[in-house]
Amino acid sequence: MKLSTVNYGKAYLARLKDFNVQLYKDRPVPDQQLLFKLDCAGDKQVQPSIISLDEGRVVGQIILLPIDFYWNNEIQKAVFACDYVVQPEYLNTGLGVRLLTKTIKENIHFGMGLSPISKKLHLALKEKMIGSVDKYLYIKSSFAYFHIACMTFLKFSLVKVPAKQDWPAEITDIGFGALRKDSFNGYDRAFNPGLIEFARDKQFLNWRFNKWFKGKYAFYEIADSKGEVAGYFVARAENWRGINVLVIADYRYNIKRDDVMDFICLAAKKLMKHNGLMGILMGSSLSVIDQKLLENSFKKVGVPSEIVTNLKLGDPDAEERNSNRNLIFANIADSDFEFNLGVNLWQLPVSKNSVT
């Protein structure tokens, strides 16, 4: 056994693909998911992903997605870690510790949706929990629970996602209008400067929702009665636990404006009905959004996706804000949870672009 930990390079791609196919057998197209994540950096010169080798064979990895985030009115660079895994027979060799230690030492790091083992390791390396993304579900009919039961106990879905979805060009309600955008200008500001908020520039939005999945997501920019941009949301259709749902994969708005969140919920319900779907699924990391979702008849479901980081907050009120879920704005677009939510996302042809 000759173990080493190195930065990812193109020479390792074939071996890394084989490793992901072997370790993630329950995922749809794990090799394509890997290519998608490696493509996140685009032309940016950033810290690559990290892999562990045993005499040249890939036996561990931590995939790093370069991100920008806002905190204390400053934009900073970081990495979002996902797919942190080692071969089962290498669990007691220290490879996992080495991968994460190298990541934390060289980057501001965020992680979300932790296994019990990785959570212990993150905390042992002095990272902190800074909240969670909780999942919320709206069901339009109690009959949907019959479909959920069939999927849960019989492992069989009675319905399939419609082959085509119809995304209206405009949605209006309660003083707002949402226009569907087919291209992204991106946003060069934080919607909530007082929170930790992940940036949404043009490159990120294009990579995350358009370049590989063109036509799969519907991006809506929200404007108020004065024509000023008040936020956005991104939707797609999926079969989840046996029911067809509208997934709100991403959204941003100023949380001081409760009416914007009410509009997002109403717009989502219109899209759900328009496409003959049974429910809506979305995430929340803030107590004010939790409350608005509950007011709009959503119910909390599943296990929260906990968030860890090595970011030094430098805010005397941060601990209290963290305990009150008033510190970080994140949702299911900030983790790989949505990538494995059903299989519909990966049924479209994906990009064959090379990655390095």
- The number of helical runs is 9
Inertia-based shape = globular
Helices and strands, in order, run as: EHHEEEHEHEHEEEHEEEHEHEHE
- Main beta sheet strand tally, sense and closure: 15 strands, mixed
CATH architecture of the largest domain: 3-Layer(aba) Sandwich
How many domains? 2
Q: Give the helix level as a range of percent.
A: 25-40%
pLDDT average, as an integer? Answer: 90
Structural overview:
It is a single chain. This protein is an alpha+beta fold and 356 residues long. The chain folds into two domains: 3-129, Gcn5-related N-acetyltransferase (GNAT) (Aminopeptidase), CATH 3.40.630; 133-347, Aminopeptidase (3-Layer(aba) Sandwich), CATH 3.40.630. 26% of the residues lie in helices and 32% in strands. It has nine helices and 15 strands. The protein has helices spanning 13-23, 30-38, 95-106, 116-124, 144-154, 202-211, 258-274, 287-295, 318-323; strands at 3-7, 50-54, 57-71, 74-86, 109-112, 128-139, 170-173, 176-181, 196-198, 218-223, 229-240, 243-253, 279-284, 299-309, 328-329. It has a 15-stranded mixed sheet that branches. Strand 12, helix 7 (258-274) and strand 13 form a beta-alpha-beta unit. Helix 1 packs across helix 2 and helix 7 crosses helix 8. The radius of gyration is 20 Å and the shape is globular. The relative contact order is 0.17.
